[in-house]
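Title: Request for sanity check on Four-helix bundle copper-binding protein prediction

Description:
We are preparing a figure and want to confirm that the structure record we downloaded matches what your pipeline produces today. Could someone re-run it with the sequence below and paste the raw structure tokens into this thread? We only need the token string, no images.
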Amino acid sequence: MSIRKMISLHPNSRDHVNQPLGDAVHHLMYCSKMCLSCADACLAEPMDMTQCIRLCMDCSDICEATARLGLRRNGDDQPVLRDLLELCARMCDACASECEKHDHEHCKLCAQMCRECAADCRNAAESLLEPA
């Protein structure tokens, strides 16, 4: 099952599917869950991982909210969606930078996912029409 397919089936997407936005939504959903999993794993580490946990949880929340807005095809919220995609890219970069400071495999995977998600968010933001 593919979220991209689901987006393409929406009546308002039949004439044009924004592929970069579909890719971003796909990665946003995964990134949200990867960050939650990393935060939980950080809780079990013996050292203080407070900042990593905080950034992972914040990143998860922002990714989830961005994915939800990116899925909506009714109405027009492109300026808000563009701003949220750009914010999400910055949050993913911050989370990745923090996770890259740690030698845990869960942090390495989270950082990789966050970097991919940030790139997709930037591509999707650029694909949206500029306000008139």
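Thanks, this matches our download. Residues 89 and 99 are 15 Å apart (CA to CA).
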